[in-house]
Specification:
- The chain is 41% helix and 19% strand.
- The protein is built from 19 helices and 14 strands.
- The relative contact order is 0.07.
- Strand 6, helix 10 and strand 7 form a beta-alpha-beta unit.
- By secondary structure, the protein is an alpha/beta fold.
- An eight-stranded parallel beta barrel has the order 1-2-3-4-5-6-7-8, surrounded by eight helices. The chain has a three-stranded antiparallel sheet with strand order 9-10-11. A three-stranded antiparallel sheet has the order 12-13-14.
- It has three domains: 278 residues, Aldolase class I (TIM Barrel, Alpha-Beta Barrel), CATH 3.20.20; 98 residues, no CATH class; 105 residues, Double Stranded RNA Binding Domain.
- The site of 3-methyl-2-oxobutanoic acid (KIV) has 10 residues, from strand 5 and strand 6.
């Protein structure tokens, strides 16, 4: 066993959490103001898909895939895109060169490149950027106490010295290439774990060298490299930093949250409320470990609050398709806004409320459809997929699907009966049930339920005292002639059945509607009967409403016989 493996195993020793971990210290900022703030405008967005996102992929993107992703990011509306780490490898260098030499960078987009605070790497980075119209050079070094002690064995002064020396070289090289419009960015890596006064000291030392102005601001990027606290603590850190930074007007405070605690989005949102103006992140949150900030979610959260995000996610399925293909990562089915199930309701009561919400929604009114935080259309999704059916869907779900997709408007009491049938079916199957299967069940249980009784022929004539009918039915294939009278065709048919000895039921309820308009119009009829205290529904369709009613009655009787 190697030393490293032994060391890692030693760390795995069983300890209670209180002996192994410490709670994250709070920030002494009693007069914090951020909790009262709201996000009212979009930040400057910077995509780090091609750098932080790409470096976390098992199979990094090929140059062709990177080009496709870059193109997509431009189309979405990113004006700042971190394209990689050109000094780290030839592929990264070549990609940067290709974007510049093939004129692929739109005039209003700045490419950003990351580089460690090391002389040879910084020089190589400037070579990669030669000829760029505008570029952001992003340098970083770790500033937090654990890394200073464990990894570098350096004092605060020495760590600050690394940043200052790098900043000086960046300044010189940038001054030597005035043909490019330079923006400079510095990240105290693991800002979240660094003493606030020290982060501030290093950032101010770097700023003193770069000499930013309100027209050419320094970007101070304050990462939660490993998300370590609740979001409110990071918001306090950001408010503290903004308040204490000298010449605040010369700086853009940038967020770069990761998602180790699963709260990257919340952390970014609270930190924006605390005064940050810029956000680095990736599509769908791809990135190291549990990922970077998911920019799609933050932007669409903003959108759902009525704030223009300046990012176009109106065709989110296309964004997702390109993302999944180029990164080989999956978007989870429950991912906000983008997941397959995001605009889907299994619960019958939710389905019902959504249905009513759509019916009530006015075109020019605020969005108010229950259970749908935004209009699925706004992100290129459609309504049809909103409803899904499984054993959790409740009694109304199946009837809702029959109504929405097959045009059958079942009476309320029948919805409950059919809901029970479908629930039992879904329970037996133990899986999601397709709409067609719901219709098939409806068809075999009601519409095609012709055993033992099936209508053969039917004639009705109006008389002074009501209606007379003459009909022929088949009972298990044997033909039976029927005659009867009543005040309407159904009553006359009930009377005819009684005359033939089929009389152990009473008629309870009736409903009908047309199924579709035009020449091929069909009528749907629903009839409820009672037999020995139990009720049974029947249903049928036919071009003639009278025939549909008679067939529905036979369907109800057949069901009662089968269950009796
Ligand atoms: O997470 C991080 O700290 C980074 C820096 C390099 C900005 O990715
Ligand atoms: Zn990062």
């Amino acid at each position: 066993m190697t030393n490293t493996t032994q060391d890692i195993q030693k760390v795995g020793a069983q300890l209670p959490p209180a002996a192994k971990y410490r709670s994250f210290p709070t920030i002494a900022l009693k007069d914090r103001t951020w909790p009262d703030n709201q996000i009212t405008k979009a930040p400057i967005w910077c995509s780090v898909d091609l750098r932080d996102g790409n470096q976390a992929l098992a199979i990094p993107m090929s140059v062709t895939e990177k080009l496709e992703m870059f193109q997509l990011l431009c189309e979405i509306g990113f004006k700042q895109i971190e394209i990689g780490f050109p000094s780290a490898s030839q592929i990264e260098f070549d990609f940067c060169r290709r974007l510049i030499e093939e004129n692929r960078i739109p005039d209003d987009v700045s490419v950003q490149v990351l580089v460690q605070c090391r002389e040879e790497l910084i020089r190589r980075t400037f070579e990669a950027l030669e000829g760029a119209k505008q570029a952001i050079v992003h340098i970083y070094n770790s500033t937090n106490p654990a890394q200073r002690r464990i990894v570098f064995g350096m004092s605060r002064e020495q760590i600050k010295g690394i940043a200052v020396n790098a900043a000086q070289l960046v300044r010189e090289l940038a001054d030597a290439h005035p043909e490019t419009q330079w923006t400079m960015e510095y990240s105290p890596e693991s800002f979240v774990l660094t003493e606030l006064d020290f982060s501030l000291e290093v950032c101010e030392a770097v700023a003193a060298i770069w000499k930013p102005t309100p027209d050419n601001k320094i970007i101070l990027n304050l990462p939660t490299t490993v998300e370590s606290s609740t979001p409110n603590v990071h918001a306090d850190q950001i408010e503290w930093f903004c308040r204490n930074l000298t010449n605040r007007e010369n700086a853009i405070i940038s967020l770069h949250t990761h998602n180790d605690r699963g709260t990257g989005v919340a952390t970014t949102e609270l930190a924006l409320m605390a005064g940050a103006e810029r956000v680095e992140g990736t599509l769908f949150g791809n990135g190291e470990r549990t990922g970077n900030l998911d920019i799609v979610t933050v932007a669409l959260n903003m959108y759902s609050q009525g704030v223009e995000s300046n990012l176009d996610f109106s065709d989110l399925p296309r964004v997702r398709e390109i993302y999944e293909r180029t990164t080989r990562m999956d978007v989870h089915s429950r991912h906000p806004y983008a997941g397959d199930l995001t605009f889907t309701a299994f619960s019958g009561s939710h389905q019902d409320a959504i249905n009513k919400g759509f019916a009530a929604q006015q075109e020019d009114a605020f969005w108010e459809v229950p259970y749908l935080p935004i209009d699925p259309k706004d992100v290129g999704r459609d309504y049809e997929k909103i409803v899904r059916y499984n054993s959790q869907s409740g009694k109304g779900g199946a009837a809702f699907i029959l109504e929405q997709f097959y045009g059958f408007d079942l009476p309320k009491a029948m919805r409950i009966e059919f809901g029970k049938i479908m629930n039992a079916f879904a329970d037996r199957e133990g899986r999601e049930i397709a709409f067609q299967e719901i219709f098939d069940q409806f068809e075999s249980e009601y519409l095609n339920n012709t055993r033992p009784l099936e209508l053969d022929s039917f004639r009705s004539s109006e008389r002074e005292q009501g209606v007379k009918i003459a009909a022929r039915i088949r009972k298990n294939g044997e033909s039976i002639e029927l005659v009867g009278n009543g005040n309407g065709p159904i009553a006359a048919f009930v009377n005819a059945l009684q005359n033939a000895g089929i009389d152990n039921f009473s008629f309870k309820a009736y409903a009908e509607h047309s199924l579709q308009s035009g020449a091929g119009a069909q009528a749907a009829a629903y009839i409820e009967i009672e037999q020995e205290g139990r009720t049974f529904w029947g249903a049928a369709i036919d071009a003639s409403i009278e025939r549909a009613s008679i067939k529905a009655l036979l369907s109800a009787i057949n069901r009662s016989m089968a269950k009796g």
